[in-house]
Design goal:
The protein has helices at about 20-35, 50, 80-85, 95-100, 105-115, 130-135, 135-150, 175-195, 210-220, 235-240, and strands at about 5-10, 40-45, 60, 90, 120-125, 160, 200-205, 225-230. By secondary structure, the protein is α/β, with parallel strands linked by helices. It has a domain at about 60-160 and about 180-185: TIM Barrel (Alpha-Beta Barrel), CATH 3.20.20.70. Strand 6, helix 8 (about 175-195) and strand 7 (about 200-205) form a beta-alpha-beta unit. Helix 5 crosses helix 7 (about 135-150) and helix 9 packs parallel to helix 10. The protein is globular. It starts with 6 loop residues before the first strand and ends with a helix. It binds 1,3-dihydroxyacetonephosphate (13P). 1,3-dihydroxyacetonephosphate binds near residues 163 and 230. It holds the Pfam family TIM. It is found in: Cytoplasm. This is Triosephosphate isomerase. One of its GO terms (biological process) is glycolytic process.
Length: about 250
Amino acid sequence: MTAPKALVAGNWKMNGLTSSVGEIEKLARLVAEKGAGCDVLICPPATLISNLSGKGIDIGGQDCHMAVSGAHTGDISAAMLKDLGCNYVIVGHSERRADHGETNDVVKAKALAAQDQGLTAIICVGETDAEREDGSTLDVVTSQVRGSIPETAMADNTVIAYEPVWAIGTGKTPTADDVADVHAVIRNLLMDRFGDAGEKVRIQYGGSVKASNAAELMSVPNVNGALVGGASLKAEDFYGIIATYQ
Ligand SMILES: O=C(CO)COP(=O)(O)O
C-alpha cells in the first residue's frame, strides 16, 4: 500500500488575536500559488476558529471535552467544533496531559467524542525527558497509543502525532533513526489495531519542526506529516515546512 497523504498541521496553542486573519490569508495565498503536496491544517485557539474558517485552509480544534454539552465551565465540545466547520481536533497534547492531568482514559474519551461527531482525532503521544533518559520511550509510546485510541475508532478518523515532550519548543529533535524506530513501533500497533487499514493512518512527527529540518524529518519512513507549534505562527515559515511535500 502507498503511504497515506501527509498532514502538516499547525498548532497555534495560546497564540493569535483577531489580527491573525492576515496570516491565514497569506498562508492560503501561498498554498494556492505554490501548491501543497499534503493536507494543510491550522488549529488556532477556539476564539479564532470563526474568524479563520472559510479562508481556504482547514481549521481544527486544539482540545475538546468528552461530553457533547453540559455544565463544564470554560470547556468546548466536539459538537461545537463541528458546528464551526472543523474537521479535526487535537487530543492528548502533552501540554494538556501534563497541565491538566489528562490520562490515557481521558484522552480516549475525548477522541471518542470527536469521532462520534465526525471529526478526525489527532491523538498525541510522546515521552518526557526523564522517560527517554531511562530508556522507556518505546514502552511509554506503546501504552499511550494502546490506551488512547477508542475501541470504535477507524483508520480514517484517527491520526497519531508522536511528539517527544523534550523536543517541544526546545529546538532539540531526535535523530532520524530514533524517529524511525518510534514510528515503526506505532505503525505496528496500528496494524495490530486496524489490520491492513493501519497502513492508512497518518503518523505525524512533532517537536521543533521548522523549514530547515523538515526535509530530513519528513523523509523518515512512517512519518506522514508534522504537527508544528512555533513555526506555524508565520505563514512563510509554515509554508516552508509544507513545501517539503511538493
Ligand atoms: O507541541 C508542538 C505541536 O503540537 C510542537 O511545538 P514546537 O513546534 O513549537 O516545538
